[in-house]
């Protein structure tokens, strides 16, 4: 005859088939940016996000390729511009005119001086917000520990040398080198 | 609002561990939070930054960003990363009993 044992309250232990808790190991998050553009609106994202990343204790690597080399080119870094031509997002209202969604007419945008004008306008707006210049931002990033590299193929194509770059650019590297040095990093292409 | 006992004082903190009432802060609390954040000893250089952040934080009502600290307190970016590694502005704000710094620069 079978006897039924009264149910007993047994303390539940973690089943032995569960894997052991992984060791609490703090691995530093890594982010890498590829900067391929040389217009004012496209050079800032990596600077702003790179700075925010450093501020969060994240390792930052930035790889400059094609027009992105303008950001680290000593002779170009202070002359990054934005053109109104072909830029449908740039509205006349940016100039303080109450014109709603009216864009800058393409033919007007093509007039001599319009690129300089649009650039000044945008730089003034950034100055008012105390946004650092591109040169200053790069220095902040380098001081904060970000690693800057120039793309070898673009450097060769544009006939540039290491001396053409601002201080803080570590080296001219190949795409394969970049892949090696960003192992495990999140990569943002701009 | 959760509370936590730091250096023998019960203080209010938010879910990220930042103190929510800067008036509850004192120097012993700073030392203990610094320990938790991996800074074994607060040197004079650390205190210079903490003092600035306390003053600035209380007068403006918000924790200074890294850029604000480097420009207004005259401590270089390099030094800030050396003194408070891995996220200097956040770290010093936490040690100074202020909220998390906001702003993109």
Overview of the structural elements:
The complex is a heterodimer of chains A (190) and B (105). In chain A, 31% of the residues lie in helices and 14% in strands. The termini of chain A are far apart. Chain A has a five-stranded parallel β-sheet. The mean pLDDT of chain A is 88. By secondary structure, chain A is of the alpha/beta class. Chain B has 105 residues and is mainly alpha-helical. Chain B has one domain. In chain B, 47% of the residues lie in helices and 8% in strands. Chain B is built from five helices and two strands. Chain B has helices at 27-36, 44-60, 66-72, 77-83, 88-95, and strands spanning 3-6, 9-12. A two-stranded antiparallel ribbon of chain B has the order 1-2. In chain B, helix 1 (27-36) packs across helix 5 (88-95). The longest helix of chain B has 17 residues, at 44-60. The chains are: A alpha/beta (190), B mainly alpha (105). The A-B interface holds A 28, 48, 51-52, 54-57, 130-132, 139-140, 143-145 and B 66-67, 70, 76-78, 81, 85-90, 104-105.
Provide a brief overview of the structure.
The complex is a heterodimer of chains A (190) and B (105). Chain A is α/β, with parallel strands linked by helices.
């Amino acid at each position: 005859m079978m006897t039924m044992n009264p149910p007993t309250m047994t303390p539940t232990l973690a089943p032995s088939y569960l894997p052991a808790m992984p060791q609490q190991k703090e691995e530093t998050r890594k982010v890498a940016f590829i900067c391929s553009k040389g217009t004012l609106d496209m050079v800032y994202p990596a600077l702003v996000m790179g700075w925010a990343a450093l501020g969060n204790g994240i390792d930052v690597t930035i790889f400059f390729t094609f027009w992105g080399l303008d950001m680290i080119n000593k002779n170009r870094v202070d002359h990054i511009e934005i053109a109104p031509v072909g830029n449908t997002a740039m509205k006349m209202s940016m100039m303080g005119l109450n014109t709603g969604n009216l864009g800058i007419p393409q033919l007007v945008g093509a007039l001599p001086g319009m690129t300089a004008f649009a650039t000044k306008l945008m730089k003034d707006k950034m100055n008012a917000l105390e946004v650092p210049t591109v040169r200053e931002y790069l220095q902040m990033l380098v001081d904060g520990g970000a690693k800057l590299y120039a793309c070898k193929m673009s450097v060769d194509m544009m006939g540039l040398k290491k001396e053409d770059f601002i201080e803080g650019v570590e080296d001219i590297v190949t795409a394969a080198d970049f892949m090696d040095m960003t192992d495990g990093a999140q990569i943002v292409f701009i | 609002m959760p509370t936590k006992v730091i250096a023998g004082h019960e203080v209010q903190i938010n879910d990220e561990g930042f103190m929510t009432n800067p008036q509850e802060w004192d120097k012993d609390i700073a030392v203990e939070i610094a320990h938790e954040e991996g800074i074994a000893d607060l040197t004079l250089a650390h205190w210079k930054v903490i003092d600035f952040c306390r003053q600035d934080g209380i007068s403006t009502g918000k924790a200074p960003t890294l850029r604000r600290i480097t420009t207004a307190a005259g401590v270089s970016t390099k030094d800030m990363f050396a003194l408070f590694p891995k996220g200097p502005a956040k770290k010093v704000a936490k040690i100074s009993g202020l909220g998390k710094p906001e702003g993109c620069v």
